Amino acid sequence: QVQLVESGGGLVQAGGSLRLSCAVSGRPFSYYAVGWFRQAPGKEREFVAAISWSGARTEYADSVKGRFTISRDAAKNTVYLQMNSLKSEDTAVYSCAARQSASRQYVSRDRADFGSWGQGTQVAVSE
């Protein structure tokens, strides 16, 4: 099992940037993909971005493509979400999640595939 802790959220003006971090700890029994999801008030949790264990495969929601970048630092067991050109509609609680897999290339957009979740970090974008 793995544990995940997010950090880096905060309040930013529209057009600004934030970088979220997801620190992964524990003893995974296999490779694991990491995804970022977000949930705005009154809305369902939605997919934002995901990255494979190898880092070679990434997936993005259409709403963030070209603005957000997901990456991972294997030495630090940390996954990052660089968010640029932020909009008010990006306001949400952002959570990272891990999905263990036998493949280094596995990546998923489906929140149901992810079994370990962090507590989340709030991102607020003001106009």
Overall geometry: globular
Could you estimate the helical fraction of the residues in percent? under 10%
Please trace the helix and strand order, writing H or E for each element.
EEEEEEEEEEE
Report the C-alpha radius of gyration, rounded: 14 Å
Largest sheet, in brief, is: 7 strands, mixed
N-to-C terminal Cα separation, in Å? 40 Å
Put simply, the count of helices is: 0
Explain the overall architecture.
With 127 residues, this protein is an all-beta fold. It has strands at residues 2-7, 10-13, 18-26, 31-39, 46-51, 58-60, 68-73, 78-83, 92-101, 116-117, 121-126. 0% of the residues lie in helices and 53% in strands. The mean pLDDT is 95.
Q: Which key features would you list for this structure?
A:
single chain; 127 residues; seven-stranded mixed β-sheet; globular
Topology:
Blueprint: E1 2-7, E2 10-13, E3 18-26, E4 31-39, E5 46-51, E6 58-60, E7 68-73, E8 78-83, E9 92-101, E10 116-117, E11 121-126
Explain briefly what this protein structure is:
This protein has 127 residues and is mainly beta. It has strands spanning 2-7, 10-13, 18-26, 31-39, 46-51, 58-60, 68-73, 78-83, 92-101, 116-117, 121-126.
